[in-house]
Amino acid sequence: MLGNLVTWLRILGYDTEYWKGDDKEMLEIAKKEGRIILTKDRGVARFAEKNGIPVLELMSSDVPEALATTAEAFGISLEFDRKRTRCPVCNTPLKSYGSRWLCDKCGKEYWIGSHWVDISKRLSEARRIFLERKSLGSNVLK
Questions:
Q1: What gap in Å lies between CA 16 and CA 36, rounded to an integer?
Q2: Helical residues (DSSP H) of 22-105, grouped into ranges
Q3: Strand, coil or helix: 67
Q4: Residue 110: closest CA among 137, 134, 88, 138
């Protein structure tokens, strides 16, 4: 459900797994590895809460909205950092070579191209939503 969000969190430098398997196994791994679960599944969210696993139930799949909500809940940065970015495909930290990045695991190469305008716009929108909520005193964890 949140595959797009996973990609964006990796671009921002966060170690993020996209789980396609059994929910129970996911919850066990999250607890063991100290991971946070982001989900749109109410049942998964409630089970995680009852078992002391950090969880955020997202109401929207809209990327800027979901990024802002995640930043509000867990204090993540919505600023791109070329030294922290990860491969959007396989989650491996990327190696920076000037304005290019290379993934040693899957061999993908990334660079600042015309798509960078869209990336910048979406991150700016996420920051705008986050700051707007902050100024209004909103808190997703209330």
A1: 9
A2: 23-33, 42-50, 63-74
A3: helix
A4: 88
pTM, two decimals, is 0.91
Q: Whole-angstrom Cα distance, residue 102 to residue 95?
A: 5
pLDDT (tens digit per residue) in 85-112: 999 999 999 999 988 999 999 999 999 9
Q: What's the distance, CA 89 to chain centroid?
A: 13
Asked whether 8 and 127 are in contact (CB, 8 A), the reply is no
- Which tokens in the block code for residue 108? 């993908």
Q: Which two tokens stand for residue 93?
A: 């930290």
Angle at 82 between CA 88 and CA 92, to 5 degrees: 35
- Report the DSSP beta bridge partners of residue 38: 56
- In this structure, is the dihedral angle defined by the CA atoms of residues 86, 90, 91 and 95, taken in order, positive or negative? negative
- How far are the Cα atoms of 28, 35, 50, 128 from residue 67, in angstroms, in the given order? 25, 17, 24, 11
* Sign of the dihedral defined by the CA atoms of residues 38, 44, 50, 51, in that order: negative
Residue 2 has pLDDT above 60, yes or no: yes
Distance of CA 125 to the CA centre of its chain: 15
